[in-house]
Specification:
Blueprint lengths: L1 E7 L7 H13 L5 E7 L11 H4 L3 E2 L5 E2 L2 H9 L8 E3 H14 L9 H17 L12 E6 L9 H14 L4 E8 L2 E2 L4 E2 L2 H12 L6 E6 L5 H11 L6 E5 L6 H8 L2 H9 L9 H12 L3 E8 L9 H13 L3 E8 L5 H6 L1 H13 L2 E4 L8 H13 L4 E4 L1 H13 L7 E2 L9 E5 L13 E9 L9 H5 L5 E8 L1 E3 L4 H6 L3 E5 L6 E5 L8 E4 L14 H10 L3 H14 L1
The chain binds glutamine (GLN).
Length: about 575
């Protein structure tokens, strides 16, 4: 196993995740099986209980792991499926060591940070690195290890110490250290500043780690003089100081790394059995994004719109779909509470602006969420989309809002609600799932990959969603919820026209709702989160359906799918 460890200096949010994903993609295209591990030096055992406002989206894996959003970047770029163990946190490591101590595994020894915690970290990395992640069942060749935070943080010290020891455990020829740094530009003359990088590398050195490659994040290309300066002061050959400057879209990053010969540097240092990377498909992808200029606007109606990272996978899924249809995605952010009647009274301008956006966009997404705030706005929005033929995709809470809206407007059950928002409602359209714990918060939802059985519509036709999934009988998508559609109300809802065309394997849990295409161009809700499995070259079908409908191209697409299937 070969390891590429990536650290970051100066500030967080440098794009370390994109850089490391791009290195992985480059190596994958050189013929290697790649995997990745993210180290988060915080005490939470996982990201599940963290506020999206502070940390961005909680990404969900097949095994139900609730992890840092960087694992989403890895999965999308490397086309892999990771597990909860691919996200190591301080909390998990300590928990493991304390568990062993209680079991008596340390045979009476004093349990210490060095060597017990540091050994645990190294064992963990070695154990997880070899797990197959690409569906082939084979062990990966290269494991990328990202150390979260910045070098010099107290929190990450123990991980850096573990990695210092790790170079000896696995051997120098099996581990390479890439440091991602920031090269800011100051003043009107625009001089690229190298000091922050020098300081970052000095910090690394002080803990016994030496970078083999430095990736410099900067607005513009690194100047030759800057490269030389970094090379001299940081004791890294100039060829190994790479420019990772801002580019028109992130798909260019792996291409830029190949241009600078990073694959051959890694080949030489790690003795990798690789061929020249085949970047044809990837180049086309990057170019297609640049040349797709006709806009398509999609509103995202949420409650965490202040931090767009909270909806990272939703944004990515919309982008993947827009790329597939050759459009330039324009996301319009709408704070759901601004759509509510109360806002009309209190903040009339915001109310007017929010509704203005809804009325002029080409399509709408109501993503997942928790808690009361903004829910009535989402329900209003679903109602408007339904009655104005506006393509809408509701995800998780968005799906639940669509069902509540239908009960209220079409079934006439005015107080229909989710018991999450009104426990006393007479018409609980969405209820708490029986097997879920009300007391413990961490890891207690219905989480991870579960299958959804797709069924025909009431009139025997194949549902739009099933056609989008290539007429599949069932799909495996990821979940994260505590509430579900009340099974007792399903018959009434369906009789009134909103059809549940996907259910779990017991048949009792509603997974997908849609209005027939004769009634609405695209009105689809999913209890699961399709955004977690969308890939740049394989957009998630429900998102693709939304974007196609927003472009008015859904019917033509589905018809062409039928004829291509017939041809097969
Ligand atoms: N709050 C809802 C539930 O727990 C929806 C969750 C979500 O959107 N992820 O079921």
């Amino acid at each position: 196993m070969k390891y590429i460890v990536v650290t970051g200096g100066v500030v967080s949010g440098l794009g370390k995740g994109v850089t490391i994903s791009s290195i992985g993609r480059m190596l994958k295209n050189c013929g290697l099986k790649t995997t990745s591990i993210k180290i988060d030096p915080y005490l939470n055992t996982d990201a599940g209980t963290m506020s999206p406002f502070e940390h961005g989206e909680v990404f969900v894996l097949d095994d139900g792991g609730e992890v840092d959003l960087d694992l989403g970047n890895y999965e999308r770029f490397l086309s892999v499926r990771l597990s909860r163990d691919h996200n190591i946190t301080t909390g998990k490591v300590y928990q493991e060591v304390i568990l062993k101590e209680r079991r008596g595994d340390y045979l009476g020894k004093t349990v210490q940070v060095v060597p017990h915690i540091t050994d645990e970290i190294q064992d963990w990395i070695e154990r997880v690195a070899v797990t197959p992640v690409d569906g082939s069942g084979c062990c990966p060749d290269v494991c990328l290890v990202e150390v979260g935070g910045t070098v010099g943080d107290i929190e990450s010290m123990v991980f850096l110490e573990a990695l210092r020891q790790f170079q000896f455990r696995v051997g120098q020829e099996n581990m390479c250290l890439v440091h991602v740094s920031l090269v800011p530009v100051l003043g009107s003359v625009g001089e690229q500043k190298t000091k922050p990088t020098q300081h970052g590398v000095r910090e690394l050195r002080s803990v016994g780690l030496h970078p083999d490659v430095i990736c410099c994040r900067s607005a513009d290309m690194l100047e030759e003089s800057t490269r030389r300066k970094i090379s001299i002061f940081c004791h890294v050959p100039a060829t190994h100081v790479l420019t990772v400057h801002d580019v028109s879209n992130i798909y260019h990053v792996p291409l830029k790394l190949v241009e600078q010969n990073l694959h051959n540097m890694l080949k030489e240092q790690l003795k990798l059995p690789i061929h020249e990377p085949d970047m044809k498909e990837w180049t086309m992808l990057a170019q297609k994004v640049d040349t797709s200029t006709m806009p398509i606007s999609i509103a995202v109606v949420g409650k965490y719109t202040g931090l767009q990272d909270s909806y990272l996978s939703v944004i990515k899924s919309l982008k993947h779909s827009a790329i597939a249809v050759g459009r330039d995605l324009v996301i319009e952010w709408v704070e759901a509470s601004n759509l509510e009647a109360e806002s009309k009274e209190e903040t009339p301008e915001r109310y007017a602006d929010a509704w203005d956006v809804i009325s002029r966009v080409d399509g709408i997404v109501i993503p997942g969420g928790f808690g009361n705030r903004g829910v009535e706005g989402k329900i209003e929005c679903a109602s408007w989309a339904r009655t104005h033929n506006k393509p809408l995709l509701g995800i998780c809470l968005g799906f639940q809002c669509m069902v509540i809206e239908y009960c209220r407007s079409v079934l006439g059950l005015k107080d229909a609600n989710s018991t999450e928002f009104n426990e006393a409602t007479e018409h609980p359209a969405v209820i708490f799932m029986p097997e879920i714990s009300k007391e413990a918060m961490g890891g207690t939802m219905r989480l991870g990959a579960r299958s959804t059985i797709l069924s025909a519509r009431a009139n025997g036709e194949t549902s739009t969603v099933s056609r989008l999934y290539g007429n599949a009988d069932s799909v495996l998508e990821r979940h994260r919820h505590r509430y579900e559609v009340n099974p007792e109300m399903v018959a009434d809802i369906e009789a009134a026209g909103l059809e549940f065309v996907g259910r779990d394997d017991s048949g009792k849990r509603m997974e997908i709702a849609e209005l027939p295409s004769s009634v609405h161009p695209y009105y689809v809700g999913t209890q699961y989160h399709p955004e977690f499995l969308s890939r740049p070259l394989e957009p998630s079908p429900p998102f693709l359906g939304l974007v196609l409908a927003a472009c008015n191209e859904l019917d033509a697409y589905l018809a062409s799918k039928v004829s291509s299937n017939a041809a097969l």
